[in-house]
Amino acid sequence: MSSYNTLLTEFHEGIFTLTFNRPKANALNGEMALETLAALRGAAADPEVRVVVITGNGRFFCAGQDMGDFESSAGKISYRKHLEETYNPLVLQMQATPKPIVGGINGPAVGAGLGLALACDVRVATDSAQFRYGFTRLGLAPDSGVAYWLPRLMGYAPALAMAMLDEPLDAAQAYRMGLVSRIFTEAEFPFGLLEIAHRLAHSPTKALGLTKRVFLAGQHSSLESALDLEGHVQEEASHTRDHLEGVSAFLQKRTPDFKGE
């Protein structure tokens, strides 16, 4: 695995863990966004990687854009160009990665950090985690996919209220709203996150990637189009080695040994 200035990376038993590492709050700058993009592209292309875990080092998951980078150039740079060069390709790569991405939300996820958290396929959190819109207090509108994911995950009205009032959700509220699927104490969190990653790493990787693809397409397609795509990806899945293993294991009443092939 490559070495990065703003990330810690680890690979073990099919699990590629990417840890944001920009003290004190893992705030994003251009370098961190591009390094994360490069790491994800590498993981997507590596057949040994079965699942990706994204988490943060320290007390924060990700505090969003480091506004200190813009202090001397506010109003003079194109935010749109910045997004097109950094966060937009990163969020798109997260969705294009044909493997599950688990967000280990170890602390506050704010602004663009919230967008990255929501772009993960499965999210688990510590009981001290927070989810905050964050853009309002900076006089900004959403970016990093927040306007796409938040209303879909928690509903239009509560998402808009969360954005306009800029009030954080704690882990329990996020669980009730469907933003996270598991909550762990801080002591339990590393083990709970690893258990979920390990479970996914031993699942049929190609089938999970196809599931991710068809679920995303279903967010903005007709029923007829969704059924057509389901037929296409089901045909593709049926020719995998893991499908044959799954059928064999089912008939033999044993646990399948999926290889991600």
Quick synopsis:
The protein is of the alpha/beta class. The protein has helices at 30-45, 79-85, 87-96, 112-119, 146-154, 156-165, 171-177, 189-201, 205-218, 223-238, 241-252, and strands at residues 7-12, 15-20, 51-56, 101-105, 109-110, 122-126, 130-132, 169-170, 182-184. It folds into two domains: 7-201, Alpha-Beta Complex (2-enoyl-CoA Hydratase, Chain A, domain 1); 205-252, Lyase 2-enoyl-coa Hydratase, Chain  A, domain 2 (Orthogonal Bundle).
What distinguishing features does this structure have?
alpha/beta; 2-enoyl-CoA Hydratase, Chain A, domain 1; 261 residues; Lyase 2-enoyl-coa Hydratase, Chain  A, domain 2; globular
Strand content: 5-15%
Averaged pLDDT: 94
Per the CATH scheme, the topology name of the largest domain is 2-enoyl-CoA Hydratase, Chain A, domain 1
End-to-end gap:
22 Å
CATH architecture of the largest domain: Alpha-Beta Complex
Q: How many independent structural domains?
A: 2
* Percentage of residues assigned to helices: 40-55%
Q: Name the shape in a single word.
A: globular
CATH class bucket of the largest domain: Alpha Beta
CATH superfamily of the largest domain: 2-enoyl-CoA Hydratase, Chain A, domain 1
Q: Can you summarize the main beta sheet?
A: 6 strands, mixed
Number of E-type strands: 9
The structural class is alpha/beta
Number of helices: 11
Spell the H/E element sequence: EEHEHHEEHEEHHEHEHHHH
- In spatial order, strands of the major sheet run 1-2-3-4-6-9
